[in-house]
Design brief:
Helix content: 25-40%
Low-confidence stretches: none
Radius of gyration: 17 Å
Structural class: alpha/beta
Strand content: 15-25%
Number of helices: 10
Strand order of the largest sheet: 5-4-1-6-7-9-8-10
Number of strands: 10
Distance between the termini: 37 Å
Bound molecules: S-adenosylmethionine
Shape: globular
Length: 283
Amino acid sequence: MNYRHAYHAGNFADVMKHALLARILLHLKAKDTAFRYHDTHAGIGYYDLAGHEAQRTGEANFGVRRFLDAEQSPGIELLFKPYVDVLRAVGAHVHPVYPGSPMIAAQMLRPQDRLMLAELHEEDHCALQSRFRRDERVKVVAMDGWQAVRAWSPPLERRGVMLIDPPFEQKDEFQRLTKALVEAHRRWATGIFALWYPVKTRREVEDFVAGLQDTGIPKILRMELRLGPFGQGLAGSGLIVVNPPWKLADEARGMLRHLAKVLVDGRPGHALVEWVSGENEPI
Ligand code: SAM
């Protein structure tokens, strides 16, 4: 396990993933009934962008910094509001800090909701645990995220979202993602599953999407942002959402088009929102 998210916190992929996650959480909060947030590869939850890891890559300068510096129309501002509200709440608009996915969820969830966070890296697990030690809604466990996907499905509440955000250090991680989704969906067919994936080569992504189609899972939404050419490192970032909240597809179209414009220097990048299976109907 070499991957440390501190080197990448606040990069363009985080902006996309976290802004969409915040919208999903907002939709879940439309009902008063409690729901669950599961994060199977949680990271440390809060990042110091002035620290040596983040400074070494400077990735946040091309992600969250560019995003916050860009002009937004009122409509776009509204779409990003839940994400920006969290950035403001933790001071990310004025200080070099950035909230990870557990912090975004913890900021948005209500007293009746619960969070389960798995992080296997020993040091990162300790950091995450100490970050949330006073929050009774949160349980942090040092367990394998792939086991957590299965073990935590379904939660007691039967409502909620599971973010599966592995580091993609191993070659078979796309296949593992599909396999884990199938098992979890079998146990929790109404759960919202959000799967992050890197966009490096066209072939890899198309094979992944074809594999998802073969699962027969009925409602799968694909959202992708590509800022660079295929075949040259991390060209883009993707999020698969199973059982997406109604309206997410429409919202994501506006959000990703905006990010494709403001997160690049020159020509705009590419935004893609399409159904892998199913269609836009309320769940
Ligand atoms: N979800 C986080 C966010 O958006 O802020 C970022 C997570 S980062 C991409 C992936 C994390 O998974 C790393 O912190 C890494 O230590 C952890 N990890 C790697 N293998 C794991 C495993 N088998 N089980 C649980 N966590 C793992």
